[in-house]
UniProtKB/TrEMBL annotation:
Highest taxon, organism lineage: Archaea
Name assigned to this protein: Uncharacterized protein
Organism of origin: Thermosphaera chiliense
């Protein structure tokens, strides 16, 4: 039986690098798996009713570029490289797939994320803003002040400010004078949030 990209390569690598005992890691794992599943459906590269050769098309697509951004957002670029290296071993007999894999591995290794140069930092902030815009279409950004505002509904919004070495997020709750119950409810939910350990 041939090796399936998602089930035999992606999932085992992700299971090794992501600690599913932490709830925030489970969300990351679910997000990445959903993206890959959607791409598998779109391009048809599964060995189960699809064609492995179509993996080459996916690897050279904008969908793959977006996947790289997601891995980078969570600091998982090395895991993506590992996935592609294992895929290269598994798909050596598929010429076009091998070429695409080699190209992407080289690109990921030579274009290191996490390098502290000013251009890379600017690009990673830009990627974060793009990710926020995709999740919150009503987001307003002020590039000059390096600040974004995300409306969360019910008089709540988040202000995100980017500094040289940190990102500050402020939650703001706007209250009507005659409705203090909103403050009580929101403060209660904030205080009940488990702290990350």
């Amino acid at each position: 039986m041939s090796v399936d990209f998602t089930r035999h390569i992606v999932n085992p690598v992700l299971s090794k690098v992501i600690d599913v005992r932490k709830s925030e890691h489970v969300k990351i794992l679910d997000e990445i798996r959903k993206i890959i599943h959607d791409c598998e459906e779109k391009y048809g590269f599964s060995i189960y009713g699809g064609d492995v050769e179509k993996l080459a098309e996916f690897l050279m697509s904008d969908d793959f570029n977006n996947l790289v951004k997601v891995f980078d957002t969570y600091g998982l670029r090395n895991a993506l490289v590992k996935i592609l290296e294992e895929a290269l071993e598994a798909y050596r007999d598929y010429v076009e797939v091998s070429k695409a894999l080699e190209s992407r591995i080289s690109m990921l290794k030579n274009n290191k994320a996490g390098s502290h140069g000013k251009n890379n930092r600017g690009r990673s902030i830009g990627e974060l803003i793009t990710l926020l815009k995709s999740k919150y279409p009503n987001m307003e950004s002020d590039p000059d002040r390096k600040e974004v505002r995300v409306e969360l509904g019910e008089g709540r919004f988040a202000k995100i400010k980017f500094y040289r070495k940190k990102i500050v997020v402020n939650m703001v709750i706007e209250l009507k004078e005659d409705d203090p119950s909103l403050l009580s409810r929101d403060l209660q939910s904030i205080l009940e949030c488990p702290s990350s350990r």
